[in-house]
Amino acid sequence: MHRSSGLTPAWDRPSCLCVDQSAAVFDASLLNPAGVRGPIGACCVEPITVLPVARFGPSSIHERSGQMSETQRQHSRVTGGVDTHKDTHTAAVLDETGRLLGTETFPAVGQGYAKLLAWLTGFGALGCIGVEGTGSYGSGLVSHLRAASVSVVEVNRPNRQARRRHGKSDEADAVAAARATLAGDAMGAPKAQNGPVEAIRILRVERRLAIHARRQAANQLHALISTAPEELRAELRELTLKRLVLRASRFRRVQATDAHSATMRRLKMSVTR
Question: pLDDT digits over 169-206, tens only?
Fold first, then answer.
């Protein structure tokens, strides 16, 4: 090895003692002032540029902390899920890769619907929202979202096996609704809560209640006749329901002084109710 210069070669000296490497650009000749070549005849003669390490890291504190910048929010697409209840709605939001961005609970009123929508859109462009119970507790929220031109799909309640494996909570149900929407498992369109279809549905509910009340009244009439005094039971037991109602409606309102008069009064009240 060539040591005629009397200086220790650069490769035998710690580089940190030779030059301050914190500078962005330094001259390699400082490491080898005598021009001594190494074993392979290499010698650094050109300046070497060192890139700062921070230039390859996160560009801001918000990115390092996991928060989204304004530009990222504008170009990102998110999916929402809502678990509906009588008094509150719990919402969850996912990004395009399925990463959970947050969960929040809002009151089930008009102002709460507006806050829920504003909260979801704060994470990016809202693609679709999956809502549980669109025909019951979630009907008001669905109407508000449709008025805002937001795509809404109906999500079925998670089965009991999945709830036992993952636990049961409002946040977990909201996240499950969002994941089902993002995966395409929830594709049903919520029923419209307006127009002639909704009017027919309300009338059918009224008809169903009337049929139930009629059946209940008929059962009460037959039960009263079965326990009525013998004279009254013999008169009414062979009548059909229609004739029984007509006959009982003609009873006079009498004072209930004994079992016979009390039964007649109760029969008349049952058929005229």
Answer: 888 889 989 998 998 887 778 877 777 877 888 899 89
pTM: 0.55
According to DSSP, the β-strands at 100-107 and 88-94 are antiparallel
- What residues contact residue 71 under an 8 Å CB cut-off, 6+ apart? none
| Alpha helical stretches, state H, the chain | 61-64, 70-75, 110-121, 139-147, 160-166, 170-183, 195-226, 230-236, 241-249, 259-272
* Interatomic CA distance for residues 33 and 56, integer angstroms: 32
Q: In sequence order, what DSSP letters do the residues of 182-205 get, joined into one string?
A: HHT---BPPPP-SHHHHHHHHHHH
What is the separation of C-alpha 264 from the centre of its chain, rounded to a whole number of angstroms?
57
Name the amino acid, one letter, at 10. A
Element containing residue 13 per DSSP (H, E): none
- pLDDT per residue over 33-50, tens digit each? 555 555 555 555 555 554
Name the H helices within 122-194. 139-147, 160-166, 170-183
Q: What is the mean pLDDT of the segment spanning 3-30?
A: 48
Res. 91 pLDDT band, cuts 50 70 90:
very high
> Cα angle vertex 71, ends 103, 101, to 5°?
15
233 in helix, strand or coil? helix
How many Å apart are CA 185 and CA 244, to the nearest integer?
55
Which among 138, 37, 123 has a CA at the least distance from the CA of 74?
A: 123
| CA separation for the pair 82, 145 (Å, rounded) | 12
What pLDDT sits at residue 92?
A: 95
How is residue 100 written in tokens? 């959970």
